[in-house]
Amino acid sequence: MEKHLIQLVTITLLFFSPCSVFAQENTSTTNADASWVPFTEGNWPTTPTLAMFIAVPVAITIYGTVTWDWGSQKNPHFGDEGFFGKNTYSGGADKLGHAFSHYVMFRALYNYYDWSENGKSTRWFYSITTASFVGILIEVGDAFTGEYGFSYEDVVSDMTGIGLGILLEYSPTLDSLIGFSWQYWPTERYKDRWKSKPFNMTTDYNGAKFVLNFRLAGLKNLGLQLPNFLRYIQLDFGYFTRNYIHRKETDAPPYRSLYFGISLNFMEVVKDFFDNPESRTCKILQQPFKYYHIPAGYSGDYKI
Q1: pLDDT (0 to 100) of residue 197
Q2: Domain assignment present for 39
Q3: pLDDT reported for residue 200
Q4: Secondary structure (H, E, C), the chain
Q5: 163 shares its domain with 200
Q6: What does the pLDDT read at residue 171?
Q7: Same domain assignment for residues 269 and 194
Q8: Which domain holds residue 295?
Q9: Which of 128, 158, 165, 257 satisfies CB 3.0 to 4.6 Å to 102 for a cystine?
């Protein structure tokens, strides 16, 4: 237990130090007249911000209790889950699930706090700390279950997802080039368990793939002039596992696989329906395709 605590504290300190500097750097270049330090004169959280501070942990606690059986064990314990090893809990799919969910959570919170804080740089502090707190809260809840346990590997994955979210929110150029998305179709096992745990698609890893998208449309922001049709193309690289979770004796052996492909960038397709691609409505309609990957194109995989 002492080993895990030392590792967790070290990881947390290493993560928050650069994030703090990062937020300060962004403040100095884009919003120099507003301090990023919260809870100071003129930087007290607004009412919508305080409401989110309450709503997020309450929602996560309810979800964890109903879906992940938090509280089913009285004594907390650690779980040594590993990362992407062949003999781990899900072959590493759960670690990418943690990274992706916290990536999306951070980006959603960042945009919410950008609105609730009226564009002040405190949005960095609130979004980083809220998303990170959720990650710790989930592991504390898992510590009181017989199935999971507090996993520092999950915390590392959470922080990785948040870190990528910080990078892409900080750099619109990188954000136009790089995406992190989830491809999912419910499995029969999930459908069989739907009535008892209808919201547990988060652990239905047999139906999930996690994909990094490289959007050719973003190359124009680097000064590269490409034929217009190439803006609809994105290159996909990902990872998924099969037959690890809730497997039966008759199932095929579990395996891990790399994913690659070329697909249609639906964010660019949405733009074609608007005279002004920078309009709020256009940007809102693009969001589902920013985080959910539709495999419209060619794809393949390579078992490892």
Answers
A1: 62
A2: no
A3: 66
A4: CHHHHHHHHHHHHHHHHHHHHHHHHHHHHHCCCCCCCCCCCCCCCCHHHHHHHHHHHHHHHHHHHHHCCCCCCCCCCECCCCCCCCCCCCCCHHHHHHHHHHHHHHHHHHHHHHHHCCCCCHHHHHHHHHHHHHHHHHHHHHHCCCCCCECHHHHHHHHHHHHHHHHHHHCHHHHHHEEEEEEECCCHHHHHCCCCCCCHHHHCHHHEEEEEEEEHHHHHHHCCCCCHHHHHEEEEEEEEEECCCCCCCCCCCCEEEEEEEEEECHHHHHHCCCCCCCCHHHHHHHHHHHHECCCCEEEEEEEC
A5: no
A6: 95
A7: yes
A8: 177-304
A9: 158
Give the Cα separation of 48 and 51 in Å (integer): 5
Does residue 282 form part of some domain? yes
Predicted pLDDT at 6: 42
Q: Considering the domain boundaries, does residue 23 fall inside one?
A: yes
Domain identity same for 152 and 191: no
Strands laid side by side in the 233-242 sheet = 178-184, 208-215, 233-242, 255-264, 297-303
Residue linked to tokens 């990528």? 164
Q: Rounded to the nearest 5 degrees, what angle is found at the Cα of 155, between the Cα atoms of 117 and 173?
A: 50
Residue 139 and residue 16 in one domain: yes
Domain contains 38: no
Q: What value, to the nearest 5°, has the Cα angle with vertex 201 and ends 90 and 112?
A: 110
Residues in the chain: 304
The predicted pLDDT at position 188 comes to: 80
pLDDT at residue 187, as a whole number = 85
Please tell me the total count of domains within the chain: 2
CA distance 242 to 252: 9
Q: What is the mean pLDDT of each run of 10 residues along the chain (304 residues)?
A: 43 42 40 62 88 95 87 84 87 94 96 93 94 95 87 93 97 96 88 64 87 96 91 96 78 92 96 92 94 95 93
Given this model, what pLDDT does residue 292 score? Answer: 96
The pTM of this model reads: 0.85
Instruction: Let me know whether 156 and 68 are in one domain.
Output: yes
Token code pair at residue 176: 């136009």
